[in-house]
Amino acid sequence: MNNSTFFLVLRRMRAPIIALIVIYAISVCGLTLVPGVDATGRPAPPLSFFHAFYFISYTATTIGFGEMPNAFSDAQRLWVIVCIYLSVIGWSYSVITLIALLQDKGFQKTLTANRFMRRVRRLREPFYIVCGCGETGSLICRNFDRLGQAFVVLEKDEIRVEELDLLDFKTDTPALAADASLPDNLLLAGLRHPRCRGVLAVTNDEQANLGIAIAVRLLTPKLPVIARARSPSVTANLASFGTDHIISPYERFADHLALAIMAPERFRLIELLTSLPESPIPQVHRPPGGHWILCGYGRFGRAVGERLAETGITLTIIDPAGDPQAGHIAGNGTEADTLRAAGIATASGIIAGSDNDVNNLSIAVTASELKPALFVVVRQNHAANAPLFQAYGADFAMVPSHIVAHESIAILTTPLLARFLGEIRRADESWCHALVDRLHALCDGLTPTVWGICLNASEAPAARQALMHGRGIALRDALRDPSDRERMLPAIPLLIDRNDRLTLLPDDDFDLAAGDRILFASSLFTLNHIKLTLQNANALDYAIDGHADESGGWLWRKLRPANVPARR
Amino acid sequence: MNLEKVVFGFFIVLAATLNFGFFVGDIDRPELHHVYELAAALVVSLIATALKFGDRTQIGAIHLATSLVADLQLVAAAVIWAIAVHVTGEGMTASVTSSVVSLSGGALFANIVSVVLLIVETVMLRR
Lengths: 568, 127
Hints:
The complex is a heterodimer. Helices cover 49% and strands 15% of the residues of chain A. Chain A is built from 24 helices and 20 strands. In chain A, the strands form five sheets. A six-stranded parallel beta sheet of chain A has the order 5-4-3-6-7-8, with helices on both faces. A six-stranded parallel beta sheet of chain A has the order 11-10-9-12-13-14, with helices on both faces. The mean pLDDT of chain B is 91. Chain B is 80% helix and 0% strand.
């Protein structure tokens, strides 16, 4: 398939090539038949094949050396006129066909698809396939890029793919304008590539996400799929064939909101750990209990309503299609009257959750005017409206694309994080509060990067080597600054997983063992330092016992007798 | 009946027959091997090659390969002729003639393979 472009060109160029061969044959044969003239004006034999071919070659390509080897007879000149026009026609035909071919949409598609495939095949590092590069997709891409994580993009819309080129990614990202729900395109994007780590189905089309998830499950059963779903039926469908992670932004937000009311510290911890790495720390949300107003009772409204009911909050629902018998109030919620009817005087919070951004803002502004102390939650549907929502400054904003992006990045880049989040479900508020304070102090004003490393041959070769040779490494050693071992790097080890035995917040004396998987929270800068210590034998030696200069490359270490201790 | 198939078959067989026409006769007698026959065989062989471009099937690939072999042999024969007649000026001696003709004999073999392939393809189609 690689040289399909070549064959396509050949196939299209068949007619002009044959035309050229025929024109050359006629011209050359003609010249070998027409009698010539010698220098004295007497008739001479015609040109031989060799001379005729020589003459036609330079005439047809418009080089034109003149009449060789002798001046031509008039009969020969007559024939040469015919030859010249024939050859001009032949070459023009070929050139026009070639240009038409280059401008052909189908041909260009083949070219880009081939280039894309070559680039995917050449990927040497683990990568993810991002299907759909809308708001969510591009957010994920930007963050993958910041983390130095390779990825491949499949997006249906050609214009979006072209915009992707303008985004100026650090990494060289192959992107193709193709429908990701077609299995062929997924394979083209490297689904069966040995380095492919997972697939994110985050297109705007529910059915497409479903199609991608099924295709991946059938073609490469071991590969994790993360899919976005909006409606419960699609969620159930995705779950039915074992999609690894389904992100339904509405339910996820409803969970978060409910958690923020019931266990604010635990929610804060989860928020910090799953936010995008090194982004400004989100403000603290402390939604109050009591009576709430919910505007918009669609899929989002229902999800929120269900979760909030568990927290003991009483809800008044405002919806254009509201059912008065169920206690709902008909209306948009954008008018003060409706809000008053819903009991805004006694309410402690309001959720502007319709699928219209302008209405949501209008609800929020009206409600805060009526009661400034109200806790306002707004749903932002489109990233393009972000400036408006920022200007308003809601207490809590729900942006579906952010929720999906945060969660998929957190899950994909650090599989251990999911286990950590599972563990803290049992943790109490004071424990969470202590950890939140430590995380806040970690990288001034920015959220920490949560990352995992496995002490194995590929991720931490030096540490594994040392541990296998019986040298003990305490967790403290891993956290030493590789340029000054007395200084400790600002990082919090969150979790150590040793053969499925989990140690939460291990202390500094914890003895590491080969094969341990460690989850850290730190800045990106510290991340690189810790990785250096664990991956580089010299840096590790220095961190463990402070030998700065018994270093040396691989060759030197081989040459040095093993039993002679290095000088102190 | 498909006109494209007719043209295809026509040129393949014509390439083989013209080649045979040049090849047949005592190998070292220049008067039995006319240069026009060589030119015709070369041109038709080139056209047959162009007709085989762009077929990605296995049999199409072998078709193209045999044609390329025939072209190569005929071009080599034509170059030897040009060198003997025009460059060294020794003319069509018995030894030059025999090397030109034997090269065209190689091309003939490739052309025969091509014709056999064509027949095989047709027979398989019938089934």
